[in-house]
Each structure stands twice: as structure tokens, then as C-alpha cells.
């Protein structure tokens, strides 16, 4: 099973923001991440890089981006 760990890059510092991510959906409002167990978070940013060998995704970050994440329930997007 291929699950990913997602990090956000804040001025060169990588911060882990979500693990066991099974689904990534980029959209106009940002990047929606969904874990294997159905936990959802929307980050108002975009993907900077994906390393398939390490199973890691790096999101772009700026000051304030961490506070812009929206946690969503299991019921919908």
C-alpha cells in the first residue's frame, strides 16, 4: 500500500502536516488531502514537489499558510 507523508515548506523549514495520505486532490481552493481512514484537510497552497521513492509530498508555504488549513469532516468536501 502506498501512503504518503505531507510536509509544508516554511522558509526552508519542512513541517510534517499529515501522514498516511492516500488521496490528493488539487483544486481552485487549494490541495485537499485525505488519509487512509478518511480524515480530510484542505490546504490553501499548492504542491511544490512529490518524491515517490520516499512517499513524501512537499507543499509550498509562506507565513500564515499553516493557519489557512481547513479540517473537513468525513461527510464531504
User: How far from one another are the termini?
Assistant: 24 Å
Number of beta strands: 7
Q: What is the H/E string?
A: EEEEEEE
Q: State the shape.
A: globular
**Which band does the percent of strand residues land in?**
over 45%
Helix content estimate: under 10%
Low-confidence stretches: 63-67
Helix-and-strand structural type: mainly beta
Calculate the mean pLDDT score and round it: 85
Give the total of domains.
1
Q: Give a short account of the largest sheet.
A: 7 strands, mixed
Number of helices: 0
Give the secondary structure arrangement, pairings included.
Elements: E1 4-10, E2 13-27, E3 30-35, E4 40-43, E5 47-51, E6 56-60, E7 70-72
Parallel strand pairs: 1-6
Antiparallel strand pairs: 1-2, 2-3, 3-4, 4-7, 5-6
Jot down its keywords:
mainly beta, seven-stranded mixed β-sheet, single chain, 77 residues
Written overview of the protein:
The protein is an all-beta fold. It has one domain. Helices cover 0% and strands 58% of the residues. The chain contains no helices and 7 strands. Strands 5-6-1-2-3-4-7 form a 7-stranded mixed beta sheet, with no helix packed on it. The chain is globular and about 30 Å long.
Amino acid at each position: 500500500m502506498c501512503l504518503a507523508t505531507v510536509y509544508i515548506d516554511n522558509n526552508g523549514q519542512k513541517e510534517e502536516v499529515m501522514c498516511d495520505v492516500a488521496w490528493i486532490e488539487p483544486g481552485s481552493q487549494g490541495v485537499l488531502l485525505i488519509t487512509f481512514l478518511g480524515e480530510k484537510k484542505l490546504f490553501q497552497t499548492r504542491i511544490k514537489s512529490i518524491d515517490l521513492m520516499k512517499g513524501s509530498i512537499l507543499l509550498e508555504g509562506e507565513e500564515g499558510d499553516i493557519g489557512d488549513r481547513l479540517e473537513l469532516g468525513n461527510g464531504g468536501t
